[in-house]
User: Which sequence fits this backbone?
């Protein structure tokens, strides 16, 4: 079995209690995409801290080389999924949304899994074509519960 790339820890978190770096970008994305009152509509939300298991080696090319510690928030709305990721080293924050009825949650293949979380395929709000995005989630009760809630919401939206 392949070695995992990150140690991830997820926690259930109300939208208003998300890390301020995540919350500001999430609310801005929700406004751009006309999603309304995210805090009032959220059916589930989770925040995940991802710490790389390996640090860049002695000969790496500075801060840009290798994996970075990140924070991820995923918020499930009745019709959408909002995802925001903050790179804690570069301070870059990216937020995206996708419609549940246009979404596919990819199946886990334990023999190939090197990362916890879930891959989601849809046309994300910042793209013109459908693409897969890995939503980081811990292999813990909060991460596993959110993954199952997402799968159920996508299944319901597509039926």
Assistant:
């Amino acid at each position: 079995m392949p070695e995992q790339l990150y140690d991830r820890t997820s926690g259930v978190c109300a939208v208003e209690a998300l890390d301020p770096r995540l919350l500001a970008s999430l609310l801005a994305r929700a406004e751009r995409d006309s999603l309304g009152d995210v805090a009032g509509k959220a059916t589930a939300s989770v925040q995940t801290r991802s710490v790389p298991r390996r640090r860049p080696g002695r000969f790496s090319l500075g801060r840009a080389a290798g994996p970075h510690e990140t924070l991820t928030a995923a918020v499930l709305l009745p019709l959408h999924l909002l995802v925001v990721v903050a790179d804690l080293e570069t301070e870059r924050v990216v937020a995206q949304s996708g419609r549940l009825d246009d979404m596919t949650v990819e199946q886990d293949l334990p023999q190939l899994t090197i990362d916890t979380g879930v891959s989601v395929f849809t046309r994300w709000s910042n793209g013109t074509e459908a693409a897969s995005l890995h939503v980081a989630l811990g292999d813990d009760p909060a991460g596993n519960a959110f993954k199952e809630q997402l799968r159920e919401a996508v299944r319901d939206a597509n039926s």
